[in-house]
Each structure stands twice: as C-alpha cells, then as structure tokens.
Write a structure and sequence with these properties.
By secondary structure, this protein is an all-alpha fold. The protein has 2 domains: 88 residues; 121 residues, Four Helix Bundle (Hemerythrin (Met), subunit A), CATH 1.20.120. The two termini are 17 Å apart. 75% of the residues lie in helices and 0% in strands.
Length: 217
Amino acid sequence: MTDIEKMVEQLDGLIVEALEVSKNTGWTHRVPEATRGRVLANRLESAIERISVPGSVYMEQLNQHRQKPLHYKLEEMIGISMGLQSDLKAGWTQSFVELVHGSTYSDYLEMAEELLGKSYKDPAAVIIGTSLEVHIRALCIKHGVDTELPNGSPKKADTMNADLKKSAVYEALQQKQITAWMDLRNQAAHGNYEKYDEHQVRLFIDGVRAFMLKYPA
C-alpha cells in the first residue's frame, strides 16, 4: 500500500464513522453520541491539518470552521475531508505536498541561519527544532505511521521518532541523533540557554538540513 493510499484509508475510516454519527437526528443532545461526535470532529480536523499544507484550500476551509458549534463543525470537517480524500485518490496533491513542505522547511532554515548569524542562538535553536518536529510528523504521514495516540491526542516528537525507527524509515543511530537535537530544542524552549553554545546550534542547523535532504517528506 502506498503512502497516499494509507492517507486515503485513514480518512475513509474517519469519514464513515462521522457520517454514521451525523445522520442520527438529535445526536448533539445525547451525551454518548455528542462525545463521539466531538472526538471525530477533532480527529478529522487533526487529519486535515496533518495531510494538508499551509495555504492550501483545505487549510483555509479548516480555519473558517474550527470554532463552529459541534453539529456544524462535524458537518464541515466531513465535507473538507471528503474533498481532500478525493484529490488524494486523483493524485493531485502528492507532488505539491512535498514541494510546499520543502519550501517551508527552507524558509525556516534560512530564518535560523540569519538569527544565528546575528548571535541569536536561542531563537535559532527553537525555530530549527520546531521545523524538525514538523518534518518528523510529515515523515510519519508519508510512511503511514500513526501521529495520534488511541485517544486521538497527537504523539510527542520522541514517540514519532521511535516509531519511524521501528518502521525502518531510518536506523537507530539517526533516531538517537534526533533525540539529541530535540533535547537541545527543549533546553532552548525552557530557557536553559547555558546548556548549549552557538557551535552546537550551528551543528544542529547543518544536521537538520542534511537530515531533511536525505529523508524528504
């Protein structure tokens, strides 16, 4: 099964469940159905966000309907998901996804380079670390690795990193290197600026750039 087929299959399962809930009259007034509907709306929202790219029509539609009441939100999430699923099946999004992802990551890398060049090592470390986490999530989607826990909440970067290694997307050495990079990012994000220096951030940026080229998403 290809990566696109896996995305379609994941969307299909969510859409079928959501349609089952939404077709029952008065479901929003019954606690079990309302709870299930809320979970499904959130999972569809998360799926659209994972599979789509910034600036796409899917993301524009998603942002318009995030805060709507539950009944309307679920209906809109179903509609957006069905459109996205249809385009995935037609093969209209695959190359576009990788192209935009590559452009986005390049922008982040340039931003981190510029900040480090001005001796702002701490925001540079945060930006490159965030870009790495987004790339890890995109790799999971590309290779059919779940990015959510069974309860629908998103997995942490360390968990996705381990899952990618288990799925043989890359080896244990690469997994350990990513763990070290994410630790540096966390130190920066939590204000532990004395735990690393500019040279380490330089190696961080160069390493992430090489990783993204070797494992495109």
